[in-house]
Amino acid sequence: MQGEFGDGSLWDLHASWGAWQTAAEKCTTYTAGKVCARYEVRRYRDTPQERGRIAYTPANGGYIIPIAVGVGSTIDNSTTGRTSLLCQPCTKRTTPYSATTRIRETPNPGGTNEYYATARFEQPDGTTSVLKAAITG
Question: Is the Cα dihedral 121, 99, 92, 68 positive or negative?
Answer without folding.
Answer: positive
